[in-house]
Amino acid sequence: MKWILLLLLTSSPLLNLFANEPDSAYIFAYSTGKQDNKAGLHFAWSRDQKTWHAIGPEFAFVKSDYGVWGAEKRMFSPVLTFGADGYWHALWSVNDQDPTFAYAKSPDLVRWIPQEYPILHHRDNCTEVEIQGDGTGKQYILSWIGNHTGSEKFFSTSTTDFKHYTPVKKADEGIRINQRTQANIANRTETGTIHKVSWKLIEGLIKHVQVSKYRNAQHAELMRDDPTRFRDLHQLEANITVQANESKAISDKLIGIFFEDINYAADGGIYAELVQNRGFEYQPTDRKNDPNWHSKTAWKTTNSDVSFAIETASPIHENNKHYAVLTVNKVGAGLQNEGFDGISLKANAKYDFSVFAKTIDGKDGRLKIRLLDEHGTIYGETTTGALTENWKKHEAVLVSKGDVSNGRLEIIPQAEGKIALDMVSLFPQETFNGRKNGLRRDLAQVLADIKPRFVRFPGGCVAHGQGIENIYHWKNTIGPLEARKPQRNLWGYHQSMGLGYYEYFQFCADIGAAPMPIVAAGVPCQNSEKCDHPIGGQQGGIPLEDMGAYIQDILDLIEWANGDPKTNKWAKMRADAGHPEPFNLKYIGVGNEDLISEVFIERFQMIFDAIKEKYPDIVVIGTSGPWSEGSDYERGWEVATELGVPMIDEHYYQTPGWYIHNQDFYDRYDRSKAKVYVGEYAAHLPNRATNMETALTEALHLINIERNADVVSMTSYAPLLAKEKRTQWSPDLIYFNNDEIKPTVGYYVQKLFGVHAGNEYFANHIELNHTDEAVRKRVACSVVKDEESGDIIIRLANLLPVGVSSKVTLDGLLTETAKATKMVLSGQPDADKAQPATAEITVEKDWAYEIPPYSFSVIRVSNPK
Description:
This protein has 865 residues and is α+β, with helices and mostly antiparallel strands. It contains 15 helices and 45 strands. It has a nine-stranded mixed β-sheet, with helices on one face. An eight-stranded parallel β-sheet has the order 14-26-29-30-31-32-33-34. Strand 32 (647-654), helix 12 (656-661) and strand 33 (675-683) form a beta-alpha-beta unit. Helix 8 packs across helix 9, helix 8 (547-562) packs across helix 10 (598-614) and helix 13 packs parallel to helix 14. The radius of gyration is 31 Å and the shape is globular. Residues 679-855 form the Alpha-L-arabinofuranosidase C-terminal domain. InterPro entries: Alpha-L-AF_C, ASD1_cat, BT_3657-like_N, CenC_carb-bd, Galactose-bd-like_sf, GH, Glyco_hydro_beta-prop_sf, Glycosyl_Hydrolase_51.
């Protein structure tokens, strides 16, 4: 690819340096308003300011990152100025409401520093922002028009560094310099700013566009075009030489899982609770003020002989304020819960029922509890003890007499009058590892079967939340269920916190995986709404005066996980919950694909320094934003290097073509800097399907990561789980409903790497009888050794429509014939139900193997000699 790219750049007539090229010319910086003002900042160039040549055309050199996806990320009226510091400074309005503007800077108009959105402490909006120097080169004066109240007002502030601003003051119209002008670009009148620049800068802009288009064309390659791309390709031959004398130690924690409560992965998913809205805590604000989502959601009365109200006067706990009050006019009427898309019951299975209840009018009736199918047929029944005037937890066991897919839970008071109910629960006794308040057994088992070396939780976006008030706080998720504090899930539903930090850590212990909790870096998600704050996005972060308490919460988490119950109250809470031994927490992630703003950096450093000082053995994992390139990625790595952060979490969702054409991505990483955790990745097709094409490119990526597993320490696919009909994001690794688990093809790739992992890597060389780079890039090999068993694991990927007759030389690893297990995942690119086929074979030191078309093979050689 490199020589093709070099040829492209040097042969383009736009890029050759001719003798008559000008030393300087003009650029016009503008935005078009297209794509609902989301198209970004564009440039055109001219020699005479009359005839303009669009660069791109309309290529986005920087886009606004302010606010929520969909509704915002908009750029209005951008302006540029070149400062005495050698940087271009850009400002633009983000909308016509918020009291802020966007700021970004760049040394060359190609590479941009992460954006900032200052809180200006005034009540008007910021439109038509202008910027001018004060004549000294040390200070910039900013002015704008505020018209949110209906009449135009002029405001100004000044800054020397675009980090600190003088108090906003009202100004006269005379402060305006009419910085913008108009130009005709491609027969369309645009508004922007004109700047005289060197031709070298313009040339750099043109080169950037051409390189981007070339790379985008590569990344857009899909296997559906293979019949044309490889129409003349026939069976290939390959010599694969494994170099036993060139080995290196690699990470023993390369494959893990990342759990986030998205797609109903927790409540209604892996958390085994069968009652939906058990605490009557659903609120319209969970779903953007949806009036149909409230404390009564999923509940209904059986007939008119009972009424159902929600009260808050005397709750069982202040963290669960709402409870149900039933007024029974005639015994026999009751309250039903529909579960999460119904309640699934298994024949002869036992279910633990519990409820907090009390009488309100003094009657001491009992509660009849029934398991029903959707037609009202009774499948199980029991009765609680007598209710009293005080809240009391009542428990009972029900046995289902048959299988039910769409069941109901019914509560029938056995006396007339008023009663109060809260925390209504129905739990299968058969949970994963038999844990109380545990996990759905089949769903947890399919995760355990990957043999993940670590579990990242609770998010993702869930960890840093939709606004400061929605940041996930671990202390709200431990202790008795009725004392846990539920909250809105930013993915548009509710978190009961029944699946809390204790349950996460216990699951890690049960499957032998290292726990990796993620805490917010003092800022919410950069895609946040305003949520009653002056501005959206990171909202200025947790106020600095509150950061001390927030940091202490993080330090308390480490004590809760690892501390001595005899000396620490948080560790005692862990022991009281049933785990006196420490959880051996080693990793903690701070932040999640954040905008690497100054607001973020300041708070991240405070957290990092505090953990490093008190717990130097804890590995703090930083973040480099949501992409594999760009301003946040670059600045995130700079910050990590400056602070000495030991590991960085990288996220990227790429096309299959990206993985094919970026196989050297980690080969170039500096081994003296931070280790890498690839915390979120997946192959995304245009239609977001998951099939053999995505699975094979993910396998290819993991083969290349395994080669670089001396610097890449951990990986986890994302998202992990998705409930059918309740999905906010696709693709996902495992789909499920109440009765079935549906692993994707990509799941088997993760499992083949996780189960068959190694900790020593052997270099290999592939000699293919074809010189076409497009062909050569689609055949890959990795060979590792599992020191514990002594087994050798060989991985072979073929992303071509033809087979490869290979000769694999294992000289130095194998001296005699050995037994091996062959596992092959294969199928046409659009196959979405493929599973590995397994066979027992023998392997020799010079071993012939036919690599099938479109396949991923794993051969595990048993303790060879």
